[in-house]
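Protein modeling request. Please complete all fields; requests missing the sequence field cannot be processed.
Requester role: graduate student
Desired output: 3D structure, token encoding
Chains: 1
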Amino acid sequence: FDPLYFVLLFPYGDDGWYDQLCQAPARTVESEASLAMRYENSRRITVMQYYAHRMHWRRGERYDGGRCVLMGGRLLQEYACTALARHEQNSLQWIRNNQSRLRTERYCNLRGAVQQAAAVGGPVQRCGQPVRLPASFTGSPRSMQQRYMDGMAIVRETAKPCLFVTMTCNPKWPEILQSLPYGSRAEDHPEIVARVFNLKLKALMNDLTECHVLGRTIAHMMVVEFQFRGLPHAHILLIMASADRLLSADAADSVVSAELPARGVNDVLREKVLEHMLHNDCTVNSECRCRQNGACKWKFPKDYQAFTVWSDDRLYPTMRRRRGVQFEERRPNGRHVNNRWIATYNPALLLKYDCHINVEVCSHIEAVKYLYKYIYKGPDRASVRAHGSWNQDEAAVYEDMRYFGAAEACWRLFQFKLFDTKPPVQALDVHLDGQMEVHYIEGNEAAVGSSDPPRTKLGSWLDYCAAPIETSRRRLPSNWHSLTYVQFPGYFQYSREAGWRPNDAQCSARQQRYRKIGRLPPINIRN
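Delivered output (527 residues):
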């Protein structure tokens, strides 16, 4: 497909990806027959691996034709989007072909169907519901819902978020400009933008969670998204330790600022604030995306405030925005700006990363649900879909409503992280005896219903607690008897074959810091 559609990018007619494409074996001195046998036994290349390989600069004459792909400009953007579309379509096709016959049903219902069939002497009736787009598929509604529930479980176990950080890629970073070929722009090379932002984001997460530049953190959540113009940005929620939580106006002022630095005090920081933290003049430009119902949805311009006001009734504290000539500036385009147009920021992070990096202080418990649903709202989707009747194929619905840009395509092809959650969360089972859900292939109802009930996390936990104390349990904490079902994953690990087993006593300090949290599923009150 590639050399037929992207003719300008493949002047030598190189083949694109196909399902029999394998990794080339290492070049050694051997016969052609043995080399061909090694090639047949080599591992096949996935769609993502192939396109990630094509998105790298390489030297040598054999790569001369491959450089045309990276010099395509907007054609490269279309090539990247097409590559990601092929990868997602390939994954969705696998789901359609392999999960169309995969069904789920309660074990007691399957056993009842087997007993009824034995009583009447007939075949076992087909039962169970087909599995739709699974939660393991990144971007599916079930995946977003489970990540949201994981976030709420972390809040239940630790505390409400204290800081909300948003970092947006700066296309003028020196690392990006130095990597661009002569005459190219950042938008012409989304693969370079994706790699540089990934490195910057890793450095920021290390500063926040390991170096504790804003205070010691006990939990964090991170989600990478992409703007309408294609630049990647990350939303980060930080839950601080009790000693470092911001509980007053003075504490908020020590971390976050919403003012333009006075002229002559720190001119470098003043220029960075004017470049990255200045909100657009949405009162003049009615086409700004922040305009809703004739006003800015972020409530810019803000009101002047002599002091920071901390209120437990508001989602965020009202930050200090003083009036004065030293806090005003006239831009080259003639716009007169002041503290009313400055977004909140941390001076140290802004100076180091030289990009839009917004830092908000969360002061009210109601901010928890809003922030978690905001960062886990899922990928961009079309807002309108016309169809004669509702389509029950969730894979087709996802495919029809999904859209993305070149930056997101490169990010996904390079398999960079879209989510990061610490501590990890483990979903637990809750069911009555014999009513656990089982997965089976359509047509195997008789075999599954006649076999022993499967082992579940809840059943293994009950068996472990009821068993007598063994010598292997001496390394457990002294209060292990008082651990609830939700707290169990922090000290035990589960496997379907062996059940619950204590964690290794020699676990690292990082594992001790981020103990796994258990999460119960939502249960109807009637059950």
